[in-house]
Amino acid sequence: MSALQLKLPPPVAAAFVALVMWLVASLPSAAQSTPLQLLLGGPIALVGGLISATGILSFWLARTTINPMHPERSSSLVTSGVFRLSRNPMYLGLVITLAGWAIHLPLSPALLGPPAFALYIHHFQILPEERILASMFGAEYESYKAKARRWL
């Protein structure tokens, strides 16, 4: 399973999960999205997108790599802004976006998408990133981990 570590860009994994959720929700059934689902899903997904975008902006301002496939190319440890609240705001944003999508869709099995993505990203992206960042930034990273939660 370690062959999957740092191999699939998280936005691609999220898009794949979103597609599977849509396909599951498209299966013939009597289920229909309620007006409340349609009303809430989009804004929740938008909030997720904004959280991810804020993380991307923080990396850009710090002039460090945003490429999740190569955390070893990080030139600095970003701990300010949204990173004070979460060590993984971009991934958290993707989970929230998928949650908004799941709420929007008519079939309840689509609700399994966000936790499935969170489990995938935790094991194959976050844990390897944490090992690399700990080796690169040492005590500074350990101090940061003590102050900011992994997710929220």
Helices and strands, in N-to-C order?
HHHH
Uncertain runs: none
Q: Report the end-to-end length measured between terminal Cα atoms.
A: 26 Å
Class based on secondary structure composition and strand pairing? mainly alpha
Strand residue content: under 5%
**Multimeric organization:** single chain
For the residues shown, what is the average pLDDT?
Answer: 94
Main features:
152 residues; mainly alpha; 62% helix
Write structural notes for this entry:
The protein is mainly alpha-helical and 152 residues long. The chain has one domain (11-21, 34-147). It has 4 helices and no strands. It has helices at residues 10-25, 35-61, 89-104, 113-147. It is elongated and about 55 Å long.
Chart the SSEs and their pairings.
Elements: H1 10-25, H2 35-61, H3 89-104, H4 113-147
Summed up:
The protein is built from four helices and no strands.
